[in-house]
Amino acid sequence: MPKTHSKRRRPVTAQHSPASTPLPPIHISGHEKIIIDTTQLTVSRGKLGKSSTETRRRINHFHTLIKQYAKLGALKQQTSDPQAISEVDEQIQAVSEEMTQMGGLDWYQRASLLGQSKQRGGDTSRWFVPKLRELDLHKGQKLRLLDVGALSCLNYAKERAWIDVTPIDLNSQEPGIYQQDFLDIKPPSVTLPNSEVEDNKDAEDSTTSNSHLFRVPFDVVCLSLVVNFIGDPVKRGDMLRQAAQLLVPNGYLFLVLPLSCVTNSRYLNDDHFLAIMTHLGFTQLFSHHTAKLAYYVYKLTSQ
Q1: Which of 229, 220, 236, 248 lies closest to 277 in space, CA to CA?
Q2: Is this structure's pTM higher than 0.90?
Q3: What does the alpha-carbon distance between residue 108 and residue 64 come to, in Å, rounded to a whole number?
Q4: 110 confidence band (pLDDT: 50, 70, 90)
């Protein structure tokens, strides 16, 4: 039999413009920005994970590094001793270098995109859409939906006849996704009619280049696997509060967390989380646990 020669896999080199231009920084809300320069980074295909288990393990480790950085940043702010600050800076640098070696935020998002592919279980919006239909929200006025941390601008493409999506992310991976920090969005006035908001848009004090997207509150806000990415617990609460401020009265919040956040945490469980959401003015409509994720749908019943 003729011999067959297997082709060696060539490494995938991160594609960037001039080597002097770093990738967008990883932004840990409430702390300094970590500059992840991957202009010289070479990533083999295997580093994205040949299996869903390996990909998930590496994503979880990246989450751990994010938490470590947030804790170190808080520790640095609490001390005035130069020696202690120097030691903390060294630890921060070590964490930052490890994230760089993993590929930084760019790697994390590519790994997450692989995780939401059909071969790896699909994206979370496929669970949420039937719930919107169950609430008969597909029959009325077109819904304005803010998709935070969007990995694809096509997640709700099948529902475009009744859902108008505004996808945002800190490090946009697609032209159709707006680069925007969720916590930097200025909450719109919910008391002005839409027409009056539009009439006054020129006089509005803009805080971001995307401010025109957020002049009118949203009917739905989606926080799918983004709250857990924030290392600072206070900022996680700020994200939930911000969601309430960006919604219309009786608007809906879709929230997805890793299951371990509510089943394997010293600080949080389903009952405690429900109490937090109730305090913020939300009423829980649906909850669902899979082997890996916890899904929730809330309605903003008071503000």
Answers
A1: 236
A2: no
A3: 13
A4: low
